[in-house]
Amino acid sequence: MPSAETPVPVAAALAPLGAAGPAAAPDPLPLSVVVPVRNEAPNIAPLVAEIEAALAGLPHEIVYVDDSSTDGTAAALRAAAAGAPLRVRRHRSSCGQSAAVVTGVKAARGRWIATLDGDGQNDPADIPRLLARAEAEAGAAGGGILVAGHRVTRRDSWVKRRSSRIANRVRARLLHDDTPDSGCGLKVFPRALFLELPHFDHMHRFLPALVLRQGGRVVSEPVNHRPRTRGASNYGTLDRLAVSLFDLVGVAWLQRRWKRPVVEAAEDPRG
């Protein structure tokens, strides 16, 4: 793994995708872990401890975005910040998971971003492997890369597993994103690449398709998935499915309405 002083191989590989955007952070770390949460107070301390254990020896930061929680999440984050490289942003009113991810990535200082769901079902121990895969893919082929977690063995209810399987099949057929588990919260990608993507509500479910639209590449990596042991889910199955169908149509429209330019060096007319 790279140290804070060692250049990360992806820096040059991202050149074809353009600048990082107006919010490029100074003195970037190798990695920022972005965790969006809403009402996850009992999961804060255990998940922060697991992230720290998984990333021991790798310079990093953890960026939590509190999407206007109404429980003890804010207090739990203040307590966790005393013993970890934790930075916190809070939304005044709830704007959803995608908005929280965007806020976190913009605030992050890492060259690479790892995203995790805040409910403890994603395993932070998988992050180093996904980061190594991302660095290897970027170094071998160049360009932007997204490594998407694939929850091979889901630890959810039968209804949630079944609805996700159907949604993944429909999405893959319409968007051709070649990703078996687009909804997995565990992903690793360059910060610069994410800042070039279109940002909209529920975009986190369509990151593979958006990265492909931008000219990047997507690979999937099997990851551990765990049952929720604390707190309650913020999503219902039927309402999530209905919203996803509308979003799917919108992303398909975005794909058709964009042509990726190939930029070539032009002769300077001034000689």
Automatic annotation (TrEMBL):
<dbReference type="GO" id="GO:0009103">
    <property type="term" value="P:lipopolysaccharide biosynthetic process"/>
</dbReference>
<dbReference type="InterPro" id="IPR050256">
    <property type="entry name" value="Glycosyltransferase_2"/>
</dbReference>
<dbReference type="InterPro" id="IPR029044">
    <property type="entry name" value="Nucleotide-diphossugar_trans"/>
</dbReference>
<protein>
    <submittedName>
        <fullName>Dolichol-phosphate mannosyltransferase</fullName>
    </submittedName>
</protein>
<keyword id="KW-1003">Cell membrane</keyword>
<dbReference type="GO" id="GO:0005886">
    <property type="term" value="C:plasma membrane"/>
</dbReference>
<dbReference type="Pfam" id="PF00535">
    <property type="entry name" value="Glycos_transf_2"/>
</dbReference>
<keyword id="KW-0472">Membrane</keyword>
<keyword id="KW-0808">Transferase</keyword>
<feature type="domain" description="Glycosyltransferase 2-like">
    <location>
        <begin position="32"/>
        <end position="194"/>
    </location>
</feature>
<dbReference type="InterPro" id="IPR001173">
    <property type="entry name" value="Glyco_trans_2-like"/>
</dbReference>
<keyword id="KW-0812">Transmembrane</keyword>
<keyword id="KW-0328">Glycosyltransferase</keyword>
<dbReference type="GO" id="GO:0099621">
    <property type="term" value="F:undecaprenyl-phosphate 4-deoxy-4-formamido-L-arabinose transferase activity"/>
</dbReference>
<keyword id="KW-0448">Lipopolysaccharide biosynthesis</keyword>
<keyword id="KW-1133">Transmembrane helix</keyword>
